[in-house]
Task: structure prediction
Amino acid sequence: MAAISFLGDLLQSISDRGRGLIAFGRDDPAKASVAEVVKLCEDLISRRGEASGVALARIILDRYDSFGRSDRHDFLRRIALEFGADHDAVGSAIAAYEKAPSRATLGRLHEAAEPRSQELIRRLNLARDGTIALVRMREDLFLLRDAARKADKPDAALAEAVDSLDSDFEHLFASWFNRGFLVLRRIDWTTPAHILEKIIRYEAVHAISGWDDLRRRIEPPDRRCFAFFHPALLDEPLIFVEVALTTAIAAAIDPILAHERRHTDTREATTAIFYSISNCQKGLAGITFGNFLIKQVVEDLCREMPALKTFVTLSPVPGFRAWLDRERRADAPQGLTREDVEILRALDQPDWHTDKAKADAVKKALLPAAAYYFLRAKTPRGKPVDPVARFHLGNGARLERLNFLGDVSPKGLSQGHGLMVNYLYDLAAIEKNHETYANLGTVSASLTVNRELRQNLPPARSVALAEA
Result:
């Protein structure tokens, strides 16, 4: 940590000295317009001086930070449209490679084909705190992309340019945030308060109601919380996981989060339940952390408690309700019989889950539909339609169990009609499950789940959903 602080201070010193080398033509460069800041970006990627480059990068990021949303979008729009590759240079490099194919001419072609926006991002990252500023900038780019897609008259050229700029961010972030740079830290009650505050704020699966709730999740001996950090974002968790140590696989979230519960003696614990995984930085969407996090936490827990044998999630099903409600309204529903459709009308009634007779009837129709949803329903790319399923199956987990009314909170009912599932991380089968899923699209599932699937149902049609 001291070394990182020293490097940060050194960068700041370079930046401070470099500011004196830059002429702006105005008394207060912080008041520069969008056009003037874009011009500073042109200057940045044309400079060779380290000191002036660091200073200029910091000034650009400071000015960007002071912009309102409209100016930020205008800036990103211009970067996307104006900082692409030099097509003439690309054409010349292609001709040179075709005339004399070699590593040298191929290297020049690669260099020419790289968008200037990618070099701009690299140089902006030179500034102190540049990395987190760029992560936040990508969050703004997502907002611009969404606005462009929802426009009454979509601009195809802009949409293509914005997607290309996002690819630049993702390409560079994948290198800057690779596993070799990540540090796993346990989050407990001795963790600095400003980081604990962020754990409360970033929890995305089961909201933390305050300090007392957080303490119940991280202080007891049978609870764990781990987070990945990056040297450039020391106080910003990237992703964290909450773990319950138990003697059996849990089927519902309420007993895990209950204010009053019986604590498990960690000497008797045989099962680690990953019940919440939260990505903290929206600007790092698409950068893989979760698979590394789970595997690292499993390794650490095994070293601490060799008696642990079962590693399983208790996961929400965020896309299930939307899928099921759509199929219930369809002329030719997938995964449902006509009798199922009639039974599932009860889902439209408020508090249906509190009526035992209605809940028992719904269960008989809903679980087979859920099995179909996980095992048969696919996106156009042949992946499961549920984003959480794609994550865990891609990591080599097995779909172990469907839990009816596992989460009866308002959020659980609105996302998945109360359904939760367990994904099992069988350490001996993770690699095999991952390979069959990645290469064949095969969903590894237990016999229990497979038995819920009704036979003689028509083949599933693909569902046009965005894949995370």
In short: The domain at 316-452 is CATH 3.40.630.150 (Aminopeptidase). Residues 464-468 have pLDDT under 50 and may be disordered.
